[in-house]
Amino acid sequence: MLGKLKLATASLAGCFGCHMSFLDIDERILELVDVVEFDRTPLTDIKTVGECDVGLIEGGVANEENVEVLRDFRRHCKVLVALGACAVNGGIPAMRNQFELEDCLRESYVDGIGVANPGIPNDPEIPLLLNKVHPIHEVVKIDYFLPGCPPSADTFWTFLTEL
Ligand code: SF4
Questions:
Q1: Are the C-beta atoms of residues 13 and 60 closer than 8 Å to each other?
Q2: Phi then psi dihedrals of residue 86, to 5 deg
Q3: Which of 34, 56, 71, 83 is least surrounded by CB atoms within 10 angstroms?
Q4: Distance 112 CA to ligand 1 centre (A)
Q5: How many CB atoms sit inside 10 A of residue 138's CB?
Q6: Ligand 1, pocket-test mutation among 58, 66, 83, 88, most atoms within 8 A of CB
Q7: Which atom of ligand 1 is nearest to 148's Cα?
Q8: Model pTM above 0.70
């Protein structure tokens, strides 16, 4: 008998909506765990990715930590999948690309309506933002694209069961 498919997932600059849609496969997840073993994913809370068959990436690439996580997934996953509009084309996070990063930060933390205690955070623990948000295929090679905001639960189901 073949071993279980090893599956890892990550959310970069996304809203976790794609992951929530994945969970909308509902009780079919019981069928899935018969053939799939979860590695790093918000569902398991495992923080490092091991050798995997499939990696699903939600969200665009907005900061240096996103770049590291994405490259790590590419190194460890045989098949890497862009999950949802933000991963496929930058989506909602990439709406900031029409402005300078400095202007976005000033609007969010200094000049915006309702800002209390103005000041742009600069704690070294906070990952540095990239000047622009990138779709993930601009950073690493991607094997498959599942568009949608989010892709439907049936899309997840069909894709994973076909694999
Ligand atoms: Fe959220 Fe839509 Fe982006 Fe998925 S594609 S992370 S649901 S905004």
A1: yes
A2: -65, -40
A3: 34
A4: 25
A5: 11
A6: 58
A7: 5
A8: yes
Residues 6+ away with beta carbon under 8 Å from 116: none
Q: Is 58 in the pocket of ligand 1 (CB under 6 A)?
A: yes
pLDDT of residue 163: 84
Q: Is 39 in the pocket of ligand 1 (CB under 6 A)?
A: no
pLDDT at position 3: 84
Place of tokens 């240096």: 64
Task: Supply φ then ψ for residue 92, to 5 degrees.
Answer: -60, -45
Give the pLDDT score at 53.
97
Kindly give the distance from the C-alpha atom of residue 47 to the centroid of ligand 1, in angstroms, as a whole number: 21
